[in-house]
Amino acid sequence: MGRGANRDVNQERVWVEQARRGDMGAFTRLVESYQTPVYNMCYRMLGNAAEAEDAAQETFLRAYTRLHTYDPRRPFSTWLLSIASHYCIDCLRRRRVTWVPLEDLGDGQWTSGSLPAPEEALIQEEARDEVQRLIDRLPPPDRAVVVLRYWYDLSLREIAQVMGTTESAVKSRLFRARRALAQAVRRGDCPYLQPAGGAIG
Question: Which of 140, 157, 63, 160 has its CA nearest to residue 97?
Fold first, then answer.
């Protein structure tokens, strides 16, 4: 990590400490630094711009009122994403939510084949819609783990910190989610998806 990154981390620590002492200006700077990743997290979880905006606002409100519980030894970003993910999980548990299509599950397990450009684009769109419907069936905590792993590229350890669980639990959730998708593909639930290179899951 370069000197610039070190300065950023040190500046962030100063803002957090000032915010914990009641400095609203310092907290506003933290919000400005993290509003985009927090909103994106909420949007990927909830699939709706208006709901994501409300969830992001609620995340920062909860963060401000709980600053006294923040452990400075923990990355502030991880703590903030933890608040956002848990709030979104609560929202998902209260109502059925349409998911944003997954662009990529990160491991090359599903392909749409080689087709001319217009047909290929149509097939890929249908495939994304099918993945969306499959992901929508997952329990909310499994959805959160999938988003954190494949969109935010967090490690198992980082996801465990965000979710407040163990690495083995995260690994189990990812395995369960991938197996559910693979089984649906094998059953033919998703005609536009096909397994690449043999067995999945």
Answer: 140
